[in-house]
Amino acid sequence: MDLDDGTRHVIAVLASRLRRPLPLPPNPHARRGTAFHAWLEERYGGDRLLDLDELPGAADEGAAPDDELALLQERFLASAWADRAPEEVEVAFETVVGGVVVRGRIDAVFADPDGGWTVVDWKTGDPPRDGTAAAVQLAAYRLAWAELSGTPVAQVRAAFHYVRQDRTVAPVDLLDAAGLHALVESIPTG
C-alpha cells in the first residue's frame, strides 16, 4: 500500500492510540450510532450490550436527535444487507499486534457462498475522504476473525457499510498480520 505523508500521519495517530489508548472526548453522534447498533442487535436476535441511557453523555443536550435513527433504520432496510443473516454479531476480540494488545468488537460476520467470511462494520456517519486509516481498523477486524474462526486470513473479507448513503466499501488491499505488525512497530513509543 503506497501512502502519502498525510495518510502516514493519520495512520501514525491511529497506531499511537493503539499503543497508548486514551479516552476520546464525548461525541454527540455516538448516541445515534449506539442506538442504531442496538436496533440491529435486536433485529438479529442478539442481546443488547448496554442500555442507551448508560452511555456517557446520553443526557447531554447535544446528543444526536432520535429522528435520525428512523432514517438510518429505513436506509438499512432498503440495503442489500437487510436480507442477509449474520453468523455472529457484536463479536468481542483481543489480539496482539506488534506487541500491542488490540481489543475491539466486530459488528457482524456473514458467511459467504465460497466458504469465506465477510466482516462488516456499520457506519452511521459519512465516509471519510481518505479511507486508508479506516482500512487499518478493517485489517485488524479481519485478522481477529481469522484467528477466532480458525480461517485462513485470505478467506476473510472486510467492509464498512455506510448506512445513510447505502454504500459498502470493501478495500481489497488490507494489511496482513505482518503489515499491521510493521505499522505498529514503526510508531515511536515515546
Condensed summary:
This protein has 190 residues and is α+β, with helices and mostly antiparallel strands. The protein contains five helices and five strands; from the N terminus they run H-H-H-E-E-E-H-E-E-H. The protein has a domain at 5-28 and 83-185: Trna Endonuclease, Chain: A, domain 1 (3-Layer(aba) Sandwich), CATH 3.40.1350.
The CATH architecture assignment of the domain at 5-28 and 83-185 turns out to be: 3-Layer(aba) Sandwich
> Could you name the CATH topology of the domain at 5-28 and 83-185?
Trna Endonuclease, Chain: A, domain 1
Task: State the name of the first-level CATH class of the domain at 5-28 and 83-185.
Answer: Alpha Beta
Calculate the mean pLDDT score and round it: 80
Shape: globular
DSSP, total strands: 5
Strand order of the largest sheet: 1-2-3-4-5
The percentage helix is 25-40%
**Beta-strand share of residues:** 15-25%
Helix/sheet category: alpha+beta
Gyration radius from CA atoms, angstroms: 17 Å
The helix/strand order is HHHEEEHEEH
Main pleated sheet: 5 strands, mixed
Distance from N terminus to C terminus (CA atoms, Å) equals: 26 Å
Give me the oligomer status: single chain
Would you write up a description of this structure?
The chain is an alpha+beta fold. It has a domain at 5-28 and 83-185: Trna Endonuclease, Chain: A, domain 1. The protein contains five helices and five strands; from the N terminus they run αααβββαββα. It has helices spanning 5-19, 30-43, 67-77, 132-149, 177-185; strands spanning 88-97, 100-111, 117-123, 156-162, 167-169. Strands 1-2-3-4-5 form a five-stranded mixed beta sheet, with helices on both faces. β4 (156-162) and β5 form a beta hairpin. The two termini are 26 Å apart. Mean pLDDT is 80; it is low at 48-59.
